[in-house]
Design brief:
Distance between the termini of chain B: 78 Å
Structural class of chain B: alpha+beta
Structural class of chain A: mainly alpha
Helix content of chain B: 10-25%
Number of helices of chain A: 9
Largest interface: A-B, 28 and 31 residues
Shape of chain A: globular
Radius of gyration of chain A: 19 Å
Helix content of chain A: over 70%
Strand content of chain B: 15-25%
Largest sheet of chain B: 8 strands, mixed
Order of helices and strands of chain B: HHEHHEEHEEHEEHEEEEHEEH
Order of helices and strands of chain A: HHHHHHHHH
Oligomer: heterodimer
Largest sheet of chain A: none
Distance between the termini of chain A: 36 Å
Radius of gyration of chain B: 22 Å
Chain lengths: ~210, ~325
């Protein structure tokens, strides 16, 4: 049995290191250490790499609650905020890369992208929606918001749907990879639907007996 | 003189294969340098090109080349689309090693007096190779400057004496799933097919490409024969061509079949006609290395900068409708 103390002292720091690894890899590629290269189109490689890892970590965040149900152990939930904040970090950097490196801070062009390109519209919306979740992720905010906190953080479902949709929509033709993300998301959300139905059924049984 | 038996050699004295091969390459490239005094400056840059790529001889420079500085051999051969080898930009370089571009035959059929199956040499050898440094604009809004080596397509097509019924030329890529792993999935409807109007095909800028940077075309770039139409988006440049057909009706084209509202038959580079999902107004000039990270995108030019030479081909045509 893993104690909360062990999680705090060992497992969480280890998870931080694991989440930082893709970023470290990217920095090594940038610095061209040990033969690593970003290749011919570095702006796009960085942008896509950050976006993909942000989405992966977002799905990992959403996997923690079902993992708690499956294992019957409380520990997965203790990694939820950590994973969510790392996901936000990657997606914020993804946005910054797009904004500064790809579009060179050209505001009119960026505004046109956001308003005219549906896949950018939904991707940008997902990122903006993530900001309040990141800000209110602290224990203090959670206490202050009370029951409203949980309602607010349900936005993560919408964010994940928009994120996967954004990926699906931007691919030129080969949708195999985005479909994997969509599939994982469907399973994770399906789990929640199934669980809430089960709970509703249990409540009905309780109420009638 | 002491002649040692094989067992007398310490293993450390044996030249490792890699070093041996490197020496070979050095010797070969030295030989190449000796012969290259006559070749153009772009060819001189071929020093960096691995010896596995056969040098092409007798290349003539072309006044149709752009003056812009061209991309490196690594960029051109390491970052491109060739879905037959996978849909990632580095897949073609990584997955095309098993492809065999020799021997090569092309079937010529349709509305022409001379039809049949012709081998590579009979198509290419009668012509003088030209180096054409062209702008290359991908429909995905990135671009490169590439020193192609080829023959004006029109010169090749004339050999087959197309009839008056030949209004279009259709092209087809080879299908070899065992050598082209991307063809194992129906990402696109194989074989890849493309087409041009006769006027486009006969235009002096349209090139049947056999090489790049003074060497034979690497597998990932469409060996051994590919098309380059510099005023059109890159996907019109069909690779590893095995069939050329003269047709009366407009032939189907692969990306148009895959996304009729996203990719047209003409596919002329046009900054004013956006792809439904992204803008075509600007492009990113592909450039590797840390220094290029902060480079801005650049304006895309009508007909990719070749408007002066080709705009007349489309007089009276609504370029928004006929994208």
């Amino acid at each position: 049995m893993v104690s909360p103390r062990q999680i705090r002292l060992y497992w969480r720091p280890l998870a931080h290191v694991a989440c930082a690894l893709p970023l470290v890899y990217l920095i090594l590629q940038l610095a061209e250490v040990g033969g690593l290269r970003l290749g011919a189109n570095p702006q796009l490689v960085i942008r896509d790499f950050l976006g993909e890892w942000g989405l992966r970590l977002l799905l990992a965040t959403l996997a923690m609650t079902p993992l708690r149900w499956l294992t019957g152990k409380p520990w997965p939930v203790q990694f939820r905020r950590l994973l969510g904040l790392w996901s936000f970090t990657y997606l914020a950097l993804h946005f910054v890369t797009y904004f500064f490196l790809d579009r060179s801070f050209d505001l009119p062009v960026i505004l046109e992208d956001i308003t005219k390109r549906p896949y950018i519209t939904i991707g940008f919306a997902a990122f903006v929606l993530m900001i309040p979740l990141a800000v209110t992720s602290t224990a203090g905010w959670r206490r202050r918001l009370g029951a409203r906190w949980l309602r607010l953080h349900k936005l993560v479902y919408l964010i994940a749907i928009l994120g996967c949709w954004h990926f699906y929509w931007l691919v030129k033709k080969d949708v195999r990879e985005p479909l994997i993300y969509c599939g994982v998301l469907a399973v994770l959300l399906g789990f929640r639907v199934w669980k809430s139905r089960q709970r509703a059924a249990a409540a009905t049984v309780e109420a009638t007996s | 003189m002491l002649i040692r038996k094989p067992t007398d050699f310490k293993s450390s004295e044996i030249t490792p294969e890699r070093v041996f091969l490197d020496r070979r390459m050095l010797l070969r490239s030295a030989g190449f340098l000796g012969a290259s005094a006559l070749l153009s400056e772009a060819m001189a840059a071929a020093e960096d090109i691995p010896a596995q790529y056969k040098r092409l001889a007798g290349i003539r420079k072309s006044p149709l080349s752009t003056k812009d500085a061209h991309n490196t051999f690594d960029e051109i051969t390491g970052y491109n689309n060739y879905y037959e080898f996978g849909t990632g930009k580095t897949d073609p370089a990584a997955e095309s090693g098993r492809f065999k571009p020799k021997p090569w035959k092309v079937k010529v059929d349709g509305e022409a007096e001379i039809t049949g199956t012709f081998d590579y040499d009979s198509i290419v050898k009668p012509h003088t190779l030209e180096e054409r440094i062209y702008r290359f604009r991908c429909v995905e809004a990135w671009s490169m400057i590439i020193p192609w080596v080829g023959i004006p397509l029109g010169e090749v097509l004339k050999q087959y004496k197309p009839t008056s019924k030949a209004h279009y030329v259709a092209f087809e890529t080879v299908v070899r799933p065992e050598e082209m792993p991307g063809q194992k999935y129906p990402v696109l409807d194989w074989p890849y097919v493309e087409g041009l109007t006769m006027a486009e095909a006969m235009h002096p800028l349209t090139l049947l490409v056999v090489g790049v940077y003074g060497v034979e075309l690497p597998n990932q770039n469409g060996a051994p024969l590919r098309l380059i139409v510099p005023w059109k988006y890159g996907f019109k440049g069909i690779k590893s061509i095995v069939r050329i057909s003269f047709t009366e009706k407009r032939p189907p084209t692969t990306w148009n079949l895959a996304g009729p509202d996203e990719y047209g038959f003409y596919a002329n580079v046009n900054p004013k006609v956006d792809h439904p999902r992204w803008s075509q107004a600007t492009e990113r000039r592909v450039s590797s290395g840390f220094g290029s990270l902060f480079a801005a995108r650049q304006e895309t030019l009508p007909f990719n900068g070749y408007a002066e030479q080709v705009a007349s081909l489309y007089q009276g045509l609504d370029l928004v409708k006929n994208f």
